[in-house]
Amino acid sequence: MSATEPPPRLYVDGHNLLHRAAFGFPARITSRSGRDITLVFGFFALIRAAARNLDTPPPEVIVVFDGQDGAAERRALLPQYKPPVTGDEEAFADLPRIHEGLNLLGIHWIEDNKWEADDVIASLITAQPAREHLIMSTDKDFYQLLSPRVSVLNTQRRADRRRIHPVDVHDKHGVLPHQWCDYRALTGDKSDNIPGIRSIGDKTATRLLTGEAHLEDLDKLDRLTGRTGHLIRQQWDHLILWRTLNPTSHRHPCPCGQSTPAQRSTTGPRHHRRTRPMEIRDHQFSAAPRRERNKVVCDGLPADARATKPSAGTTISQTPT
To answer: Which of 50, 107, 132, 195 is buried deepest, with most CB atoms within 10 A?
Structure first.
């Protein structure tokens, strides 16, 4: 990276990481007073571990949360789209503490009531196409955004496979990023409650979309034959609707999408605004040395969070999540 080139941006899919922090640890973490701090500790531990293991200069970090009504526009088209998860409200009760922690660390965060995190992140990337962007998420919907300058960071994968590039998607699924929405419409997406075409799995979808084809190309390429072709023709309108739900929107007017965020203003979204890149360094996430009694339990944390141990006085209960 040249001296004049801005540092990479690391976008954290906030609610995706909240789920991992709340439900992905093998044991509950409590403070000295007995308060359950699993969500807060896990959230920051996972961010820190991810940033420390990047093979890039220290990134500018932006955490983006889903807005409460962010899915409303898509639910108007498909009422069962991305239904609320039972238990989320209780599990995420400490979200204001995470907002406070991000503010204290000087990390920019965005939560716009009318937008999903996917759309905000897509808009930020579109605003600076020449910059290097990383998206920390396990959500495969972000594969549609991949390019030579955009990669996905999935820290649940082993260390040498955590960065996902367009070639990785093609090697695994046989499609390119611009085909991802067609692919998902055919196979379905359980996390978004999109059913897909029954009996069409990954291999069939890959075969249908061979040669960078899109759904509209299948008929003229004579690929709508046999039972599979009959099913697709029968559910064509649904298929197009499902694909319509998947693409990210690039229309969010986010202030940090430009080089000088302090010169722009917004109303509505909650965000912590900063005017300079954020560098994550060890002292910003430092924890007091752990006590020996925590050793065995700490080693049972998810692999991508082991770099951050609880501070002295923090205990980990053995009650499973």
So the answer is: 50
Within 10 Å of residue 192's Cβ, how many Cβ atoms? 19
Distance CA 202, CA 70 (A): 29
Distance CA 254, CA 232 (A): 38
Cβ atoms 213, 221 nearer than 8 A: yes
Distance CA 238, CA 25 (A): 38
pLDDT digits (tens, 9 = 90+) for 206-252: 999 999 999 999 999 999 999 999 999 999 999 999 999 999 988 88
Strand 108-111's sheet: what is its strand order? 163-164, 150-153, 133-136, 9-13, 60-65, 108-111, 270-272
DSSP code, position 173 = H
- How many whole angstroms separate alpha carbon 80 and alpha carbon 193? 7
**Amino acid 289: pLDDT:** 32
Q: What are phi and psi of 198, to 5 degrees?
A: -60, 135
CA dihedral 83, 87, 88, 94 (to 10 degrees): 170
Q: Please give the radius of gyration of the chain, using alpha carbons only, rounded to the nearest integer.
A: 21
Mapped onto helix, strand or coil, the DSSP state of residue 9 is: strand
> If 0-12 CB within 10 Å is exposed, 13-18 middle and 19+ buried, where does residue 15 land?
buried
pLDDT digits (tens, 9 = 90+) for 94-141: 999 999 999 999 999 999 999 999 999 999 999 999 899 999 999 999
